[in-house]
Design brief:
single chain; alpha+beta; Porin; eight-stranded antiparallel beta barrel; four-stranded mixed beta sheet; 4 helices; 21% helix
């Protein structure tokens, strides 16, 4: 075989075609490079589109004052992986852990979505995570909608009007969709969720100067709470207290008290602790019977008092609280209990002090 021999005619044609293809490829590549450079040059020449104003998640989310929801902004930040969102978005979380929670999202002041969550069976931490995830999903969906709305649009065909203009459809996440051009569809009216909470409790009491001697008692109570205000109706029954007489020896009286109280409190919340002052008034009576006397008669006298107290509550779980209070009272109607002595010849009168105090601690369950 000769090394300098010329290639056959068919191979020559293939080489020509390959060289021609390589030449065309270089031309196409140069053309694409020039077009890319021109495009990027023109893009750099245009001023960038102004970005939409933003605000922090703390300013975006407004919620009910519930210690279980403290730090919900941090949980939402974890899901969204961002600190600030479009300033046109606002989220309202209504309700408290342990009851129905409503997440409402607004865009430019208009409600564009709502989701209701049942948290009665969830712990405090689980309720916070569930609500924070719902808030993050609502914000993310609204941001996507805003981006598609803010993007330049070409000529589009107007959407068909449904047969029932009031009909609404729900997204997979339970948020109501918004009609074209940012006009929300009409939603069926729903009864607003009540933020009034009713609870029951049982407490132990210590009364100082409410009886001639310190007394211990207990009783149930009912509370009605709305926001930071709490009204409380309580009943207390003390154990009998023995009052010795100086004469005759071994004689005396056995006294116990029954009281009903009404408190009006304003409690400030900090995480799981609530604390605040209360105005208090109450009424009841003393009941006493002679002891060691020839004539033992039972006597009941009225008792009315006013006062104030400091109340504190520690939230143990979604529905349970440990409640304590300490208060001062002033008797408006002071009981004067008179017990007869032997043969009724002598009597001894016991008068309640004008000023007294009471302390209580108990468990509270929110219905």
């Amino acid at each position: 075989m000769k090394t300098g021999a010329a290639p056959p005619a068919s191979e020559g044609r293939q080489l020509v075609v390959m060289r021609g293809s390589m030449t065309i490829g270089r031309a196409v590549g140069m053309a694409l490079a020039v077009a890319t450079w021109l495009t990027s040059s023109s893009a750099r020449a245009e001023p960038p589109a102004p970005s939409a104003p933003t605000k922090s998640l703390e300013d975006t989310i407004r919620r009910t004052a519930d210690p279980c929801f403290d730090g919900i902004e941090a949980s939402v930040r974890k899901w969204l992986e961002r600190d600030r969102v479009d300033a046109r978005i606002a989220v309202v979380v209504e309700g408290r852990a342990g009851e129905e929670v409503v997440v409402v999202i607004r865009r430019d002041g208009v409600i564009v979505g709502e989701r209701r969550l049942q948290t009665s069976a969830l712990s405090c931490d689980r309720a916070r995570e569930t609500v924070s995830l719902a808030v993050a999903m609502a914000i993310d969906a609204t941001l996507l909608k805003l981006r598609s709305t803010d993007a330049p649009e070409g000529p589009v065909t107007p959407p068909a009007v449904p047969a029932d203009p009031t009909a609404t459809d729900s997204s997979p996440h339970g948020m109501n969709r918004v009609a074209a051009r940012g006009v929300p569809k009409q939603r069926s009216k729903q009864a607003p969720s009540s933020s009034v909470r009713v609870g029951l409790g049982l407490e132990e009491r210590v009364w100082l100067a409410a009886l001639p001697r310190a007394a211990v008692g207990s009783g149930p109570y009912l509370s009605i709470e709305r926001g930071a205000l709490r009204a409380r109706l309580a009943a207390s029954f003390t154990l009998p207290v023995d009052i010795p007489f100086t004469d005759p020896a071994g004689a005396g009286a056995r006294v116990f008290a029954v009281a009903g109280e009404a408190d009006a409190c304003a409690l400030a919340r900090a995480r799981t602790i609530s604390m605040g002052p209360c105005a208090r008034m109450g009424a009841g009576g003393w009941t006493g019977i002679g002891r060691g006397l020839a004539r033992a008669e039972s006597t009941t006298v009225p008792w009315v008092f006013v006062g104030g107290a400091l109340m504190a509550a520690w939230q143990l779980a979604a529905r349970w609280e440990l409640v304590g209070h300490a208060g001062l009272l002033r008797a408006i109607i002071r009981p004067a209990l008179t017990v007869g002595k032997a043969g009724g010849r002598l009597e001894q009168t016991t008068v309640m002090p004008e000023l007294g105090a009471s302390f209580g601690i108990g468990l509270h369950y929110a219905l």
